[in-house]
């Protein structure tokens, strides 16, 4: 307990009045500050020992009650004593808002209501002002209002926020009769006559708040206070229940019939856990931090006491517990809304708000099998429906999908309470599995139905392997959602592609989808592709084994099961190949085609890859990734279709030169022959027609103008990239200078293609991810990057200094540890050695890597840059100065050491952070 007692402080001040407010504050503030500091330290110690968030919040609230009371008594006794107060000098002090609920987080605001019988007097104004000055000197965030009872009621009528604040007002001290009068009149004049309006306003307010904080409760950096499934959702439930059912305490909601005892216990568990997390966050940061960011997650997991287990890290186990609580809050929200609708207090939502484009149904229609249409939604006839036939638990959701009906919350509630019926018998029931397969492969709204099944707890019970990844987060900056939410969203993207809704974004996928023969296998593979996440073994291999087990159970044929297993095992192959390999290298296409083997698999893998990437989160899919996937698809199609794969290299070079000649009709034959002689065969094989023509004209103009360094740029909105072409005398550090200039100018490189003419001129193409939506803005940025590159190549600036200015590591990345890896492979290309480097991303990393490669006297033929959140994967196709592969083991070891040294400082700092 705090050693400094406010009561003893009040006694030490004596009874003698003073008019020196500054002197009184000087005596009060230091002792009260010490009392608060010691109290917070005590609260934190109790929290760490007991891990009870509500006890911590209540303790802090009780401590604040004492402080406010001491400040009031000191002001009344010493500054503004009222020996014979008039009727107008009565007043009460009440806590409102969260403070009124009797709970405070360490960084919470202190909301006070100074309640007057009539209008404010000079005496009451002076008392309130003096109290506030002391509280402000204590560095407290005080929200306050000074109103009469009539003013409170008038303001509450006009403002829903004030009405909510008064709903939770708690008497602290002063004139109790005055406060009781406010409570009585507030209940009679406002609450009793405005329940439907209040409920509607609070639910709309919740929708707006959730949309602002992040619409999904499965965001991997949730807002504990205002996010979906957070504390404010619980507050809203109680406000509504308190308003409608006229209860004082949460435990009265069972007697009122809103919750069963079990559901109220769930409410209490959710509230305690969220308060525990919130208090830990405030203590850990020393401020009112409400967003559970990556860097905080590790700290809070440790403070609460989570440890690694079952293939999950401590932080992943903590966040899984958090998301389960957020889901439970969602269940409680549905229960309350259902009860309110039954009382006709809440307006029934339009079906399209719940399920999408659904038709109106006639109330009271019987559907058979124990199901009815209740108030335009699917409900059960009675509570015995699932007990009588457990298959009906699956049939409930199947009917919702087939008939385009929203499910009544009562039916969902019963399904959740009936989960014990889902055992081996139901899991292996052919009819149940047929219905489930119909849901996954539906052309209606499988994403919505699967999410509803998941939130009811059904998916994890019916498919136990899915249950292992429910609420599981992946502790990285790449994935925006939990694994189960990602899989469900992937099915949704697949449905959109099949329905032709994304034709402009995915033209190839939309074109080939109608030709896919294994539609059921594709949908099941998308639903299962990450189902083995969180296991010690590779999740793709383990997922394929799960697919082989589940396929026959779901009713797939042997061939369909094989296809699903293959897709799950190789679901990352196309993405990784497209983004991190040289697609102009025949060896890349050949090795990819050898794995894929058939056109049907190629089609399936393309569509699955798109669905997977798009469901990762907003901004993850780009037009550039789409272009890479299309290029890989078309190049592989040639091989699998028996096309011109065996066409002689010399013939392909000749055809490329003929195409370019046709694009340059104004060139003389001699001029064109001279130009052709400047390029090695690799240039003609690896560049496309459009780029060859543009670069030919650029080289010609540079020669005529006598420019040693020339740049050109253009943007492509569809692909989401901007291309820079750089002409410069070649030298070993050229790419390092270019990447450094790009980093200094804010250009994010995603690809690089490098060629050198026979007369020593480098022709480099750098592809940057697009930063602006408007072309004019993006072109202005490209111009800045191009000028930065020109200045660096001309020696007008020192590139190392420019890059150093961008060195501070991303704050968010500090929470992560990505062990650096260097792989050197000579089998991936016929002519170059492929070096793959992965590690923690940071500004200037690509510059550091290319600088190291330059110092190693390696020529870089192409570079392919991929970033997965905090993890960078950079791939370089290189040769020695002699133009040959790097085959000597000692030379490879030197390269590996030099590249790992680039990460050494960051790696040691990361290890220190993890051990701290």
Automatic annotation (TrEMBL):
Coiled coil: none annotated. Uridylyltransferase (UTase) activity is inhibited by glutamine, while glutamine activates uridylyl-removing (UR) activity. It comes from the Bacteria. Residues 483-605 form the HD domain. One of its GO terms (biological process) is regulation of nitrogen utilization. It catalyses: [protein-PII]-uridylyl-L-tyrosine + H2O = [protein-PII]-L-tyrosine + UMP + H(+); [protein-PII]-L-tyrosine + UTP = [protein-PII]-uridylyl-L-tyrosine + diphosphate. Transmembrane segments: none annotated. Modifies, by uridylylation and deuridylylation, the PII regulatory proteins (GlnB and homologs), in response to the nitrogen status of the cell that GlnD senses through the glutamine level. Under low glutamine levels, catalyzes the conversion of the PII proteins and UTP to PII-UMP and PPi, while under higher glutamine levels, GlnD hydrolyzes PII-UMP to PII and UMP (deuridylylation). Thus, controls uridylylation state and activity of the PII proteins, and plays an important role in the regulation of nitrogen metabolism. Belongs to the GlnD family. This is Bifunctional uridylyltransferase/uridylyl-removing enzyme. It comes from Microvirga flocculans. The lineage of its organism: Bacteria, Pseudomonadati, Pseudomonadota, Alphaproteobacteria, Hyphomicrobiales.
């Amino acid at each position: 307990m705090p050693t400094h007692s406010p009561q003893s402080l009040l006694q030490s001040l004596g009874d003698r009045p003073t008019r020196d407010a500054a002197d009184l504050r000087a005596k009060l503030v230091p002792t009260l500050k010490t009392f608060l500091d010691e109290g917070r330290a005590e609260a934190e110690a109790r929290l760490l020992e007991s891990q009870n968030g509500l006890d911590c919040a209540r303790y802090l609230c009780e401590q604040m009650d004492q402080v406010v009371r001491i400040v009031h008594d000191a002001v009344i006794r010493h500054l503004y004593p009222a020996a014979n107060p008039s009727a107008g000098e009565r007043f009460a002090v009440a806590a409102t808002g969260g403070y009124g609920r009797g709970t405070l987080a360490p960084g919470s605001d202190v909301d006070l209501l100074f309640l007057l019988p009539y209008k404010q007097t000079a005496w009451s104004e002076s008392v309130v002002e003096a109290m506030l000055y002391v509280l402000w000197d204590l560095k407290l965030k005080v929200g306050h209002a000074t109103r009469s009872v009539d003013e409170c009621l008038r303001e509450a009528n006009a403002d829903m926020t004030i009405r909510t604040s008064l709903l939770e007002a708690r008497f602290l001290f002063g004139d109790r009769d005055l406060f009781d009068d406010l409570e009585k009149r507030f209940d009679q004049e406002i609450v009793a006559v405005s329940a439907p309006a209040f409920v509607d306003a609070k639910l709309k307010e919740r929708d707006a708040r959730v949309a602002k904080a992040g619409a999904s409760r499965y965001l991997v950096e949730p807002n504990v206070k205002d996010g979906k499934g957070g504390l404010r959702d619980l507050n809203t439930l109680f406000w509504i229940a308190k308003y409608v059912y006229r209860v004082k305490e949460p435990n009265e909601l069972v007697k009122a019939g809103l919750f069963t005892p079990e559901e109220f216990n769930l409410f209490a568990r959710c509230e305690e856990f969220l308060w525990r997390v919130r208090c830990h966050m405030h203590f850990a940061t020393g401020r009112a931090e409400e967003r559970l960011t990556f860097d905080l997650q590790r700290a809070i997991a440790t403070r609460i006491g989570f440890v690694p287990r079952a293939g999950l890290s401590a932080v992943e186990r903590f966040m899984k517990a958090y998301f389960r609580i957020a889901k439970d809050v969602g269940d409680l929200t549905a229960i309350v809304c259902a009860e309110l609708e039954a009382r006709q207090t809440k307006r029934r939502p339009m079906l399209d708000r719940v399920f999408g484009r659904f038709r109106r149904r006639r109330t009271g229609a019987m559907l058979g099998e124990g199901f009815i249409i209740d108030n335009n939604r699917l409900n059960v006839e009675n509570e015995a429906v699932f007990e009588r036939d457990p298959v009906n638990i699956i049939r409930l959701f199947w009917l919702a999908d087939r008939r385009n009906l929203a499910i009544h919350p009562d039916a969902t509630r019963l399904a959740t309470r009936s989960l014990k019926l889902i055992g081996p018998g139901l899991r292996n029931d052919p009819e149940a599995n047929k219905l489930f397969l119909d849901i996954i492969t539906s052309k209606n709204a499988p994403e919505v139905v699967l999410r509803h099944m998941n939130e009811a707890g059904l998916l994890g019970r019916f498919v136990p392997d899915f249950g292992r990844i429910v609420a599981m987060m992946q502790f990285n900056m790449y994935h925006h959602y939990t694994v189960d939410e990602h899989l469900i969203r992937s099915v949704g993207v697949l449905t959109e592609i099949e329905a032709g809704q994304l034709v402009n974004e995915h033209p190839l996928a939309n074109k080939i989808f109608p030709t896919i023969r294994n539609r059921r296998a594709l949908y099941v593979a998308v639903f299962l592709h990450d189902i083995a996440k969180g296991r010690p073994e590779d999740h793709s291999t383990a997922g394929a084994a799960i697919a082989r087990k589940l396929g026959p159970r779901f009713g797939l044929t042997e061939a369909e099961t094989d296809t699903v297993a293959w897709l799950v095992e190789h679901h990352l192959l196309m993405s990784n190949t497209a983004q991190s390999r040289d697609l102009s290298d025949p060896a890349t296409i050949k090795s990819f085609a050898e794995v894929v083997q058939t056109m049907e698999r190629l089609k399936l893998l393309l569509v699955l890859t798109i669905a997977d990437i798009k469901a990762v989160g907003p901004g993850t899919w780009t037009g550039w990734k789409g272009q890479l996937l299309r290029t890989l698809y078309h190049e592989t199609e040639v091989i699998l279709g028996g096309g011109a794969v065996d066409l002689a290299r010399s013939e392909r070079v000749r055809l490329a030169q003929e195409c370019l000649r046709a694009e340059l009709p104004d060139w003389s034959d001699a001029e064109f022959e001279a130009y052709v002689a400047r390029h090695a065969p690799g240039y003609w094989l690896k560049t496309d027609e459009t780029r060859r023509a543009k670069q030919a004209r650029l080289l010609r103009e540079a020669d005529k103008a006598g420019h040693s360094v020339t740049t050109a740029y253009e943007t492509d909105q569809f692909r989401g990239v901007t291309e820079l072409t750089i002409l410069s005398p070649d030298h070993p550090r050229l790419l390092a200078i270019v990447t450094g200039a790009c980093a200094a100018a804010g250009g994010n490189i995603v690809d690089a293609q490098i060629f050198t003419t026979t007369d020593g001129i480098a022709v480099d193409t750098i592809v940057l991810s697009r930063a602006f939506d408007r072309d004019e803005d993006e072109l202005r940025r490209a111009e800045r990057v191009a000028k930065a590159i020109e200045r660096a190549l001309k020696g007008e600036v020192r590139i190392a200094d420019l890059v150093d200015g961008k060195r501070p590591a991303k704050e968010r990345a500090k929470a992560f540890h990505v062990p650096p890896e260097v792989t050197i492979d000579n089998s991936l290309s016929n002519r170059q050695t492929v070096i793959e480097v992965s590690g923690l991303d940071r500004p200037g990393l690509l510059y550091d890597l290319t600088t190291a490669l330059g110092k190693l006297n390696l020529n870089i033929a192409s570079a392919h840059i991929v970033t997965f959140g905090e993890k960078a994967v950079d791939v370089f196709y290189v040769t020695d100065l002699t133009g040959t592969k790097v085959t000597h083991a000692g030379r490879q070891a030197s390269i590996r050491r030099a590249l790992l040294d680039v990460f050494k400082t960051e790696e040691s700092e990361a290890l220190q952070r993890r051990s701290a």
